[in-house]
Amino acid sequence: MDQASSLHIAMFPWFAMGHLTPYLHLSNKLAKRGHKISFLIPKKTQTKLEQFNLYPNLITFFPLNVPHVDGLPFGAETTSDVSLALGPLIMTAMDQTQNQVELLLTQLNPNIVFFDFTFWLPKITQRLKIKSFQYFIVNPATLSYTTSPSRMSKGINLTEFDLIKPPKGYPNPNTSSFNLYSHEAKFLALKRNFEFGSGVLFYDRLYNGLRFTDAIGFKGCREIEGPYIDYLEQEFGKPVFLSGPVLPEPPKTVLDEKWGSWLDGFKDGSIVYCALGSEWKLSEYQFHELLLGLELTGFPFLAILKPPIGFDTIEDAFPEGFKERVKEKGIVHSGWIQQQLILEHASVGCFVTHCGAGSLTEGLINSCQIVLMPHLDSDHIINARIMSRDLKVGVEVEKGEEDGLFRKESICEAVKVVMDDENEIGIEVRTNHAKMRKLLLSYDFESSCVDGFCEKLQELVM
After folding, report:
1. What pLDDT shows up at residue 91?
2. What is d(CA 283, CA 326) in angstroms, rounded to the nearest whole number?
3. pLDDT averaged over the chain?
4. Do the beta carbons of residue 28 and residue 53 sit within 8 Å?
5. SS3 letters for 29-82?
6. Which position among 235, 316, 333, 425 has the lowest Cβ density within 10 Å, counted as fewest Cβ atoms?
7. Which residues 6+ apart lie within 8 Å of 187 measured at CB?
8. Taking 70 as the threshold, does the pLDDT of residue 177 lie above it?
9. How crowded is residue 236: how many other Cβ atoms within 10 Å of its Cβ?
């Protein structure tokens, strides 16, 4: 790319590894095309991400000193340094970096700044005559459902009965099939009043950014997200761009021998891999139901879980006799694991996921079938509906309508549906998944998406 057409882009994502990492993945895609990236990052967190910077000649980290906020442990910078309940205080600390950020942007003078939760950023960029771009790692279907002007105009008085159905004009051809469970709608109604840093309500934080940003962006492609993009452009009256699926780069490491040798001991497509993300701690009851459900399937399994609430280790929380019954056929592990390499292994036939955006992308580009067990969070809930009812590329675990609890039988049933070669629903899901995987991995598909995204960014800053 010639110097005249290259952009200088600043990245300022929310201080959580689940946001910092996707922003860096996108930075790599943009730097590959010759664009210069200035990445604003908490000082001590920089070392965690440097290994994933594939273009250090074009991607430069600019460390920020994260102020201490009362109630936070000293030295806490990101949500991975604290419990889930302290996340809003990390947001407060991030808000207090405003002066540092303005000074850096004044010195760097980028063409455009990507941000997600710092709703105050567009006012700074307007003063500096820099374009702002609110880039979300959640899908546009989620934002359309929860934060469109049609929804937000109702204020904080939205009830679970309002939220159980999509907002007016929501682009789902069969809205009745998209309705949320009662416990999910109750959660969204409660979250509407949830303070997320500096006394600002969570959805107000997102909405105020959306109102003042120059343009909006999402990870995704028009083949999947198109109707929701059209809806948001109409609702907000501003351009919405898609960066493409931002597929993870092929790992440069190999699978640890410990896991490779265990996986190699089973036939192709026979193992159930279950991973519920870095933040979801189950209750003891749900922890037991999940493990007993995996055992009930009769398939070998590898489950990556945090110790349940009230326990220091996963072993202390095992159901009675569980360890002896499953022996080497079932492993439960609480540490970090090379998920991308695990999912690529030929013996893995099923992926039980909490429905985080990154995990779903990894599931879709691999041949293992997907079982959806969404964490009670807005984007995970909508992700599960899109995957199970709209795209029909996975099967969702049935939960109680009111209490949101799953049972061991519902875990077992969902796994068996996708693993059964003769089950009618399983056949449909496997067929749709194969088509989606072929699209996402097809030659030049992602590349053309990113090229189109870059062209739109260049038009924005002209």
Report:
1. 97
2. 21
3. 92
4. yes
5. HHHCCCCEEEEEEEHHHHHHHHHHCCCCCCEEEEEECCCCCCCCCCCCCCHHHC
6. 316
7. 376, 378, 381
8. no
9. 19
What's the mean pLDDT in 100-109?
A: 98
- CA 217 to CA 70: how far, in whole Å? 34
Read off φ and ψ for residue 186, nearest 5 degrees.
-60, -40
Per-residue pLDDT, 152: 87
Kindly state the tokens that stand for 406: 């799953």
Question: Can you state the percent helix, strand and coil of the chain, rounding each to 5?
Answer: 50, 15, 35
Catalytic residue from among 95, 116, 214, 377: 116
Instruction: Encode pLDDT of 4-36 as tens digits.
Output: 579 999 999 999 988 998 899 999 999 999 999
Q: Is 375 a catalytic residue?
A: no
The three-state (H, E, C) secondary structure of 412-459, written as one string: HHHHHHHHCCCCHHHHHHHHHHHHHHHHHHCCCHHHHHHHHHHHHHHH
Across 90-99, 148-157, 294-303, 364-373, least confident range: 148-157
Q: In the annotation, is 19 catalytic?
A: yes
CB atoms within 10 A of CB 244: 21
**C-alpha span between 298 and 271 (Å, rounded):** 10
| DSSP H helices in 271-377 | 284-297, 322-326, 339-344, 357-364
What is the per-residue pLDDT across 383-414, written as a single tens digit (0 to 9) for each?
998 899 888 999 999 999 889 999 999 999 99
Element holding 216 (H helix, E strand): strand 215-218
The number of beta carbons lying within 10 Å of the beta carbon of residue 245 is 22
Catalytic-role residue among 19, 35, 375, 380: 19
Tokens of 326: 């499953």
Tell me how long the chain is: 462
Q: pLDDT (tens digit, 9 = 90+) per residue, 56-78? A: 999 999 999 999 999 999 999 99
Give the separation between CA 300 and CA 289, rounded to whole angstroms: 17
For residue 166, the one-letter residue type is P
Q: Which residue has the higher pLDDT, 221 or 172?
A: 221
Token pair of 353 as six digits: 């996921």
Diameter over CA atoms, the chain: 67
